Amino acid sequence: MKLEGLHVVVTGGASGLGNASARALAAAGAHVSIFDINKDAGSEKAAEIGASFHQVDITSEDSVVAGFDAARAKYGQERALVHCAMTAKGGKTVGFDKASGGYRRLSTEDYAFAAEGILVASYRLASLSALGMANAEPLNEDGERGAIVLTSSAAAQDGQVGQVAYGSCKAGVNGLVLPMARDLMELGIRVNSIMPGIFATPPMLGVRDRAPQIFENLSKSVPFPKRLGNPEEFASFMLELVRNPYANGQTYRLDGAIRMPPR
């Protein structure tokens, strides 16, 4: 898929992996629409790269539909979706609670919150984008109509202590990829996911500021290169998945060969 002049929607585009993706797509000549809950940061980042910004809550069907409607009114049907946004709560399945002196479990409500913010949101964004793509004309002789890139995590395979909700829901994102790609094969819409390892996103940079030794140890834990991933490296890989018409139905690790221990 040639990106020049095409419309691409990026969720979570106000920061981190989403912002790096939005910048890379704009630099490649795409018309970019940023979906993000953070209005101030999203508007600022969109203005920097000549993108449009739409305040979207990925956990709300109405908000997402409105975001797509507004983005398409400006640039036409998007031909790629890069979904980076998420929301979740963490905690052990059952862990010791210092405050009460006893054990407590991660509540069903907190688990459901993560499922909504990671897995259900991924399906919501991908399926609504695919519905729009299905009615668009093919872009090339292969009959390609669009591409979807979801963001999973190395935690989908290496879930650590306290990641029962995050890890399992990110594994669910990977589980969407192949059946969705096959559902959409006759429409010429490709679906892939990226499993980033430890990347220098705002939460991790916060760890660097609060606990530099922990940050240094995390960096050294990556086999090679011995550092956290740069969001631009995620964006570079994302571009290849969007551009390459033979990349379909696959989940890809991007992690410097790290395999995370239980803790």
TrEMBL record:
GO terms for molecular function: oxidoreductase activity. Gene3D superfamilies: NAD(P)-binding Rossmann-like Domain. InterPro entries: NAD(P)-bd_dom_sf (IPR036291), Sc_DH/Rdtase_CS (IPR020904), SDR_fam (IPR002347). The keyword Ligase does not apply. It comes from the Bacteria. PROSITE patterns: ADH_SHORT. Keywords: Oxidoreductase. The keyword Oxidoreductase applies. PANTHER family: 17-BETA-HYDROXYSTEROID DEHYDROGENASE 14-RELATED, SHORT-CHAIN DEHYDROGENASE/REDUCTASE. This is 3-hydroxy-2-methylbutyryl-CoA dehydrogenase. The lineage of its organism: Bacteria, Pseudomonadati, Pseudomonadota, Alphaproteobacteria, Sphingomonadales.
